[in-house]
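Lay summary. Proteins are chains of building blocks that fold into shapes, and those shapes determine what they do. In this project we predict the shape from the chain. Here is one chain we studied, written as its sequence of building blocks.
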Amino acid sequence: MIKFFRKIRQNLLSEGKTGKYFKYAIGEIALVMIGILLALQVNNWNENRKKETLKSEYKTALINDYTKDTIQVNDRLLRNNLRIDRINSIGDSLTNGHYNNLESYFRLLNNELIGMRVTNVYNTNSFNLLISSGKIDLLDKDLRKELMELNRLQTFEKTVQNGNKAYLFNFMLKLGSKYPQFGSPFSKNKTHQLLWKDVKVNDLPRDLLNYFGQEHYTISRYIELTDDVLQQTELVLKLLHQAND
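And here is the predicted shape, written in a compact code that computers can read:
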């Protein structure tokens, strides 16, 4: 093709057709420019298509992560709300005198000091990849803003609850150290009696009240902070689904 155009130019020059040569040269330049512009347009189209594909993949990954989070969070909120109901019931029973002797308090100690789920494990792989790769700018401004707010709420919830959980766990350990978990102070078994010989059992009602008060605070705070995270997660999911429509 290049040889063909070169031959045409040489023929025009050799025949002395300078005017036609310049017109031809201008036309040739125009064709080259048009070719370059078309190539740039095709390249831009390909780049935009790649960006849209990548954007769609990130949105799908985020939707999967946050959908899993809502399932986990709703389950834990349900369990912790039930636990709050139980603690409130214990409080009512204490107030109404249903626990009126050391043996009933001892049963309460053995039956109600249970493990809790008061921190969440969020699925943040896709979000972290967006941030570390610098691809967060692929998403719309409003969506980026809400994603960052969700990450802030998640981080705040985990920070606060890690502290609250550690404090309550230490409280539980102290109770376990002060009051033996093996045997009963009311047992006729000599081994049990020996274990409980120097224990100040009269402190048990006060210690249990303090423990349940702290547990109630820890769980209530978890519910409050997790509700904030859940609402923001649902907002982000709504924006992600709208962006995919």
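What the prediction tells us: The two ends are 47 Å apart (CA to CA).
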